[in-house]
Amino acid sequence: MSTSARAGTRARGLWLGVGAFALVAAAQAWAIASSPADRDMAHLQKIMYVHVPAAWNMMIAFFVVAIASLRYLWKGQERDDLLAASAAESGTILTGLTLVLGMIWAKPTWGIWWTWDPRLTSTAVLFFLYVGYLILRAFVDDPDRRAQWSAAVGLLGALNVPIVYMSVRWWRTLHQVQSSPQTLDSSFTVGLRLNAIAMMVVLVFFIRHRYETARMEREAELLQERAALGGRGGING
Amino acid sequence: MRDEGRRILAIVWKDLTTERRSKAGINAVAFMGILVLLLFGFAVGPDTNTLRAAAAGALWLAILFSGVLAFNRSYQLELDGGALESLLLYPGARWAIFIGKLIANLVFVLIVEAIVIPVAFILYQVALPPGWATLLAVTLLGTIGFVTLGTFYSAMSSRSRAREVLLPLLLFPMLIPVLLAAVEASTSLMGGDPMREAGAWVRLLGAFDIIFLVATTLAFEYVIEV
User: Fold this and answer.
1) Assembly ipTM
2) Which of A136, A142, A151 is facing B170, going by the closest CB pair?
3) pLDDT tens digits, one per residue of B138-169
4) Interface size, chain A vs chain B, as Cβ–Cβ contacts under 8 Å
5) Cβ contacts (< 8 Å) between B160 and chain A: which residues?
6) In what helix (H) or strand (E) does residue A92 lie, and over which residues does it extend?
7) Model-level pTM?
């Protein structure tokens, strides 16, 4: 990519970021202003507008990881590997956010920070699965090896997601009803949907931004390799 | 197919012979398992009923922690002598290497279990339950799932930096379904299975084993060739 083209990409990325966060601020303001105080939780319920969109979008991010990993194993193109890594990092951040926000919500409503509920447990497992994935990437230096290994781990991890979700459901039958447009009063759903879309734009911005960074890191790695081989692109360069 | 069978057997034979000649591996790993059982006992306290209730969980954790020591060793022995490259250069399917390593690891962990499980029964004062044959089957199924994932992930972690840290970080979250099903089935059977719920867990465990066995055998090609 040429320098001017890269500057253009970065400018577009910057505007996407500004737009994404402005959209989140607007969606939050609208949701908070328009929804009435909840019957049981009063204004504590407002945390739903960040918690639930984060949870939904983390699933989207991990879905992208699985698809990009599969594509990498199939076609062997580096950009799929970088896309999987970017989505995994963004998804892990959203999972962490979901867990922390959930705990903040759980303390005043359930009286405890943590309970071994299937939804909580499976989300925590998901978080550690993808932390493992990111650590694997950090500990392998050879790019081809890193790409191939993390694609395999990403796919196997994705396979585990539904299994963990179902197994903890089978394990403990006690299960709280979760927030979704079906279980919510209509005065809350529009705000929730709006925030989910805003958060998705943030996710797209995160993945895109991380992807551009990953590309630059790869180029820096290649330049270092060339320098080590005598400054001219290897034996044939 | 017959050739692959012979390759698998050759790898199993080679790995087990190496272990038999050194013996240090089995002893250290079994000792580690017993140590975890002891530590867990101290953590739970001397109350007999609490100990009995925690026995299955403690036993499976002891097997997990000691087993992890074994998996990295399995590839480390190949790497030390530069033997992995030669192994990969031989004609034949890569999955045969995986299955060979898997069976060798399985035998290794089963021997360790033969030492650790009786100790667990004594330390945690669990009487031999009437359904002990089913309990053996559960142990075997749980071990197959554990060893399958362990053999797969150690193929990567043993060839990366900081391998001692990486293997448990990759392996343990993946193991949770197997661990859950194995612990639930074992707890139920150790208590005499009054609710007749062990059967469902055993079937689930069998399903996990098949899913993970197929997925890792297919994916092994991608992690070993680079």
Assistant:
1) 0.85
2) A136
3) 999 999 999 999 999 999 888 888 777 889 99
4) 80
5) 136, 139-140
6) helix A78-110
7) 0.86
